[in-house]
Amino acid sequence: MQTVFRPRTLILFLGDLAIFAIALYISLYLRTLEPVAEGSFITHLYPFSLLFVAWFLVFFIAGLYESRSIILARRALSATLLVAQTVNMALAALFFFFVPLFGIAPKTLLVIYLIVSFLLVLFWRVVLFPWLGLQRAEPAVMVGEGREIEELARVMNAAQYAPVHVAEIVSPSAPDLSHTIVDSMERHRAAIVLADFDNLRVSEAFPQVYNLLSAGVRFFDALSIYENIFGRIPLSRLNTAWLARNIGMQGNTLYDILKRAMDISAALLIGVVSLILYPFIIAAQKLYDGGPIFYRQTRTGHYNRPMPMLKFRSMSGTDQGNEVLKSKHVVTPVGRVIRATRIDELPQLWSILRGDMSLIGPRPEFPALVEEYARHIPYYNLRHLVKPGLSGWAQIYHHQDPHHGTDVEETRNKLSYDLYYLKHRSLLLDITIAMKTVRRLLMRGNA
């Protein structure tokens, strides 16, 4: 399914690039209401082209190029664009203030550009891009059964900008499966087949169906599409074969070195800068209830080893050991503020420097909770094959995390995101998660 999305994403990108340049030209005209000289446009285009790189990064962080955002959009496009372009203009103002090398100080121009670029990008994405016909859903036949197959079909059919519309779900138990698939395709005039190839009956039937490749029929693995759209692993499909294919025990030496270098660099930078907040947090804690500033907990870390973890206290007491299974502590007013801004996590930067944690990885749990979940959730301890992190894939996309209590079903869902990270982890994914964490903190919205 990635090949279905990529041409659309490329066209979106190229369109945004053209809009950025056109908006600059129009803004130059509106600033003086006189024809724009070619030399003036080129003079401004050169520094602005450097900014375009940063602006595209902001668009990426805002999720404006993600297939996931196209399918599972949670925010209005206009609101996301306005926030993204406001951030872009702030970056531009800082750029021209701190890098005065181009002989221009476009203060009025930036205000005009913010309005013009927002309106043009919105017009391009809402009107012109759909007009190209790339948003039109193609009919598809889905072959498979189970909760994930039904969920995928339901979401694809409900999404406004999905690339396909599932016209029919063919059960693998159907007699003469290959003939049933072909009949369904002809009946719905479908040239796309989404199939669960992990199902033995499906894989056995497809050698005959693959003859349709020469007729232009395209075949996609339904479970790979499920992963791509939902960002999680379907837990019902986990078995030893899946683990052997996707979760290797051998690490990537270069990746491990680069990840550790990124951890140390970021932890040092953020840790030193954040020291300025410590006096204010300490004063607020002491003024409210005079209780301890920090609390030290034992969490389960890499390879199920216990590790110490330090946090700013955000509750009326501290949870240790089996207390977390029936916690009666409540979040304090100070705690609500430092939790909402994630300031309570800052002391964990020193755990990253020690090597107990990483910047990115599954969040560490209490040993009592780990023991409880491991009894009820198969493969739960796989999440401990990597170092726990300050932020992670599950923290970006799973929003029903049980805090200071037990919830087996929600933890099972959270594990599906952790396993997605284990399968796909790379330096690029780590950087993506870090940027999306910043976006979530700044915009206070779901990713």
Per DSSP, the total helix count is 18
Computed Rg = 26 Å
Portion in helices: 55-70%
Average predicted local confidence, pLDDT: 83
Structural class: alpha/beta
Q: What's the number of extended β-strand segments? A: 8
Summarize it.
With 447 residues, this protein is of the alpha/beta class. The protein contains 18 helices and 8 strands.
Please explain how this structure is put together.
With 447 residues, this protein is α/β, with parallel strands linked by helices. Helix content is 57%, strand content 9%. It has a 4-stranded parallel sheet with strand order 2-1-3-4, sandwiched between helices. The chain has a two-stranded antiparallel sheet with strand order 5-6. β3, α8 and β4 form a beta-alpha-beta unit. α1 packs across α2 and α7 packs across α8. 31% of the residues are buried.
